[in-house]
Amino acid sequence: IGQGGARVTSASVAEEEYGTVLHSFVFHRGLVGKNIDQLVTDMRRVMEPYTARALKVLTEPVKNVLKDFVTAAGPLGVTHFLIFTKTETNVNLRLARLPKGPTLFFHVTKYSLIKDVVSSLKRHRMHEQQFSHHPLLVLNNFALDGMHIKLMATMFQNMFPSINVHTVLFVHSFNNM
Question: Under CATH, what is the fold of the domain 22-113+126-160?
């Protein structure tokens, strides 16, 4: 197969995979400020290509209610919500599985924005192709035992498609020919 045939094959495999993969919405609730708004945008980049990159969240005077997102999620195949909120003392993240849960609640204690990471690099190397594949998530050897840790690990693992190592290596080496 020539290079053009490989692209067509790769595109059809990607389209077939896209329909069976879990999708997410990343958004904020309430007034969060400029940094948290940027964090939401950065998390959308991390969750690409299986998230709504240009999701519009309406704020004052007309604002979206959670039911608006749930209603839109069904027809679009969205299975997870990542919802950021901010109080006077905390930044919070709720990770919700649709349609019936569970929902996990986290306090965000530290975070770095993409712009801060890029500005700290001596050599800036960031390409749009980095966001064309879902993130690689490795969850093993958690230090704590308990059902809540297992639930959290399972929730995170089920947010992304599983990786077939043989296919990834084959497609990567085939595209570099």
Answer: Rossmann fold (3.40.50)
